[in-house]
Amino acid sequence: MPTVFNFRVKEKAGPLYKQLALYFQQEILKKHLKAEDKLPSIRELTTDLNISRTTVLSAYQELLSLGYIKSVPHIGYLVAFPENFAKQTIVSHSSNDVPAIKYNFSNNYIDTNTFDTSLWRRYLSRVLSTPSTLAGYGDPQGEFYLRKVLAKYSYDSRGVVCTPDQIIVGAGLQSLLDIILPLLVHGEKSVGLEEPGFPQAEQILKNFGWHKVSFNPENFSLTTVPRLIIISPSNPYKGSNLNDKAQKNLIAISQLPNHYLIEDDYNGEFRYLATPTPALYSFGNSEQILYLGSFSRTMLPSLRISYLVLPQPLLPMYEKVKKNYNQTSSTIEQLALAKYIEDGCLAKHVKKLRSLYKKKNALLRKALKKYFRSQVTILNFTSGLHLHIAIKSRYGADVLASKALQSGIKIIPVLGGKTEYPEFLLSFAGIAEKDIDKSIKALQKVFRN
Amino acid sequence: MPTVFNFRVKEKAGPLYKQLALYFQQEILKKHLKAEDKLPSIRELTTDLNISRTTVLSAYQELLSLGYIKSVPHIGYLVAFPENFAKQTIVSHSSNDVPAIKYNFSNNYIDTNTFDTSLWRRYLSRVLSTPSTLAGYGDPQGEFYLRKVLAKYSYDSRGVVCTPDQIIVGAGLQSLLDIILPLLVHGEKSVGLEEPGFPQAEQILKNFGWHKVSFNPENFSLTTVPRLIIISPSNPYKGSNLNDKAQKNLIAISQLPNHYLIEDDYNGEFRYLATPTPALYSFGNSEQILYLGSFSRTMLPSLRISYLVLPQPLLPMYEKVKKNYNQTSSTIEQLALAKYIEDGCLAKHVKKLRSLYKKKNALLRKALKKYFRSQVTILNFTSGLHLHIAIKSRYGADVLASKALQSGIKIIPVLGGKTEYPEFLLSFAGIAEKDIDKSIKALQKVFRN
């Protein structure tokens, strides 16, 4: 029986059980341990290494599942024959593998310094001090108080007129799609999405057997348009907003019989340079537009509350099934959010963000011009939370983005850009004002090499 | 143009816009307002009644959608012709319609006095004071810290050995089914559920085209057993727990090639009278059992955090799609829960609940005997959070349950019971210890009449 004197716990090398499993895997692959060799018993390892039984069990289970070892009754764990070994090997979740991100220009991230967490904490605390509301599973459609507040907020902020009965609250777009897609059952399951697509929505659509069609709101035929369109008027991946022609086209689609438009109003609040565009819902045919709002950009991405405005004609179908769905959003957060919005805190915060983003937007453009000079072209800066840029370089956008990531700078490459040069989206929501200049300086250094 | 001098806002009669819409609907149905009569303009109503524009718009939109009024450009809102009126009428969400529940014996409810909300608030606050973790969308699989803690907790509390990589966190069973059902794609989509079924799971299964088969773990043929079985060993709806034979059968199923068992371990922690049963996962074939744990019973139903232990062989498929799923559970609550469990607070709370429930269980049985005497039979009291009883009566279980509800007592009728008498489940999780005697006294009074 081999001793494990070589095993040493490493700091920051991932969970202990993984390290232990990895150790044995290497011992086996290096043939220090051969087929039919007995491994230490769980008790021995627990005692010798002074680690928990669960850690040892987890390590052994990992090795078992990969075929490196086998469990033999009354004997213990033995090394298996090499032909049983999985192709797959254990990878430790070492935090050394991925460089730490110093400057994050991705659009899934926000600078929490801009959000008043102590104020938000007070709202959460207030809910927790009236615990009677937390005793049940809550309203499957979302707390009525929140829905009432959202009906007003969506009108005030985006011109969306609806009743609380039309609002369904859920933990993100995907939870809401899981509920509403089964309601859109009549006819062909084809769905149109703008390029470059929307992986989170597409996964759910695929799960429900919908067939994706690439859709361009500026150029399509009304006779062959898919029965369902999902559109994000301020979609950051596209790098540009809907123009007037596209808007008119979409409104025409919302009038077609048996056609539906899901309007994901992501970033809708952040139009401070161009003319603010009201939601399509507010001037299209609201009987066929499903409006989606969320708070991941206006508050915190980690707050999992989104809402959907269901058209009146779909309500009876939803009413029939709604009791079969448990609410996915936390009741505590729903009630805190309702009060936060009702007190005007959200409107105030959005106003503050708008002015901050306007400033960051200008600073970022200035820094790009300063360090990249004629090498950079700013393709779009009017869509709220990010710049769309092109940089003259002999490398592709994805190569440059991964070079940047190696240096701790996260930028989003635009695949299939409009220019001959690599294009990127730089979101400034996650970067502190004071870091803008130095981050672009650092980026230029990366690109130069 | 009619004046609306009769309209009065009622306290506790539901949202204002509904009251206003209801008022006009009644005026129209009573023919006080006739076809082509003009309704007051939005501005007039806003001023006259001193209510918000949104309220008026919402009321009018409700009336429009039901066909009671029509909008004529340049003129305003007119009463429509009666043939356009919807069959559907406006129902106000009046809190007077439904009697307030005084004693809640349903199993969707817990007595929050048993939960230390101020302690939980401190855990939430601690997370909020390190806001950097809240800036992103979080790990799609669930925060690693929570998964690590859950791997240990599920072993300590239920004998479930797994690695954090196998754990997927989500906002409830349904969110998790939405992710895993598309992974179980090979073969026929038939799923076995015990009677009387499980509406929340069935809705999701139906959405994905699965065909439900009634399944009895004590009596079935191994050759025709559905490819997927969903089982709740402590399912409160059944009124009884799995016996040894059923357990052995389920373990046999977990060995069949290409068969899967989803073990919903709801209430699993609450076995304090009978011998505690470890999770099936812990002694079945864990390569084909998907274990589901939640905190709705041990903490608060409003806390939307569940977790699933995915068998090792399904991991590669999940890894491929996981980045396409956003996490549904709140990051704040996930991190607070992780620390709460790690500090031993959950184990301590469960221990406290066990002893409280044991006491309530005895008190409830005593009260039933005291007031119902020979009229009551206690069929089962060993399954943790509820009693399964039969009451001699000439009425059916559902009639008696609705009579009780009218008197403010919520009890759950068991449909298709085993005895000749109406059967009920009485959960004591939601009822205060001090209310047990008087609630049963009140229930006996209801049943007597």
Which key terms come to mind for this protein?
Aspartate Aminotransferase, domain 2, 14 helices, Aspartate Aminotransferase, domain 1, 36% helix, homodimer, seven-stranded mixed sheet, 14% strand, 449 residues, Arc Repressor Mutant, subunit A, 15 strands, four-stranded antiparallel sheet, globular, alpha/beta
Give a short overview.
The structure is a homodimer of 449-residue chains. Chain A has 449 residues and is of the alpha/beta class.
Topology readout:
2 copies of one chain form a homodimer.
Chain A: H1 16-29, H2 42-49, H3 53-65, E1 69-72, E2 76-79, E3 103-104, H4 117-128, H5 144-158, E4 167-170, H6 173-180, E5 190-193, H7 199-207, E6 211-214, E7 228-231, H8 244-253, E8 260-264, H9 280-283, E9 289-294, E10 306-309, H10 315-321, H11 331-342, H12 345-372, E11 376-380, E12 386-391, H13 397-406, E13 409-410, E14 412-414, E15 423-427, H14 436-448
Parallel strand pairs in A: 3-13, 5-6, 5-7, 7-8, 8-9
Antiparallel strand pairs in A: 1-2, 4-10, 9-10, 11-12, 12-15, 14-15
Helix pairs in contact in A: 1-3, 2-3, 4-11, 5-11, 6-7, 12-14
Overview of this protein structure:
The structure is a homodimer of 449-residue chains. In chain A, α5 crosses α11 and α12 runs parallel beside α14 (436-448). Chain A starts with 15 loop residues before the first helix and ends with a helix. Chain A has a 7-stranded mixed sheet, with helices on both faces. In chain A, strands 11-12-15-14 form a 4-stranded antiparallel sheet, with helices on one face. Residues 92-97 of chain A have low confidence and may be disordered. The first copy, chain A, has 449 residues and is of the alpha/beta class. Chain A has 14 helices and 15 strands. Chain A folds into 3 domains: 16-84, Winged helix-like DNA-binding domain superfamily/Winged helix DNA-binding domain (Arc Repressor Mutant, subunit A, Orthogonal Bundle); 103-112 and 348-448, Aspartate Aminotransferase, domain 1 (Alpha-Beta Complex); 136-343, Aspartate Aminotransferase, domain 2 (3-Layer(aba) Sandwich). The radius of gyration of chain A is 27 Å and the shape is globular. At the A-B interface, α3, α4, α5, α6 and α7 of A face α3, α4, α5, α6 and α7 of B.
